[in-house]
Amino acid sequence: SSTPHLLQLSQLCVSYGPVEAVHQVDLHVAAGEIVTVIGPNGAGKTTLLSAAMGLLPSKGQVSLSGGVIVRPTVEAMVAQGVGLVPEKRELFGEMSVEDNLRLGGFSLWRKGERDQGARLQEVFDIFPRLQERRAQMASTLSGGERQMLAIGRALMAKPRLLMLDEPSLGLAPLIVREVLQVVASLRDRGVSVLLVEQNARAALKVADRAYVLEMGAVALSGNARDLLHDQRIIDTYLGAG
Ligand code: ATP
User: Fold this and answer.
1) How far is the CA of 64 from the centre of ligand 1 (A)?
2) Which of 47, 98, 174, 178 is deepest in the core (most CB within 10 A)?
3) Could you tell me if the CB of 44 is within 6 A of ligand 1?
């Protein structure tokens, strides 16, 4: 179809000095899609996400709904409805759950949208656990709760595209499933997702489409369910468990 994709990366290249970490990546996320990028350690997944969010300079093109972002910056991406949940989660440990969430809504507040209460309630509906713990200090949360808070904080800015960097990192398998199921359910709330994961099996189970990144380049892409049954993917990424 001729409808432009929500996010389109075209021939994206990212270098650290002389070393090219991401090489000519073409990737898109259509509205309503959950797309995952899987691949081994050091394949360039975090680098790709950071460049797409404007945290790192890149060559090539980043477009949102067909509009080319000439030089992506975090401010420009946030203003256009993109949210990022970084791998390190970057919460304010000495602040309450609620205050961490309110900080996430700051960009809307600046735009004159003052009804943070309603937004806060929506996030609490998605993560009831955060509501129970709204007054608790972020540093005292469990790993899974911290990940929920990081996602909730990004959702406070009402993104239409949420990019997540390894939300499963350090979480027990049961919690991974819980967090990823919530991520997948965001689609029903009008949020599309770009999910970077080393946990290929868990990611392929919730995603619509997937890209396999190897040594900075797309080695394979396709329907997530097909890749889950692809012998090369099984041998390389789904072997254990
Ligand atoms: P992981 O899952 O381990 O985080 P990844 O797929 O996210 O891996 P990246 O972190 O994007 O991979 O790293 C891609 C390549 O770029 C690696 O070779 C890494 O060593 C290199 N790299 C990452 N950050 C930097 C940096 N700040 N300076 C120089 N090289 C870097």
Assistant:
1) 25
2) 47
3) yes
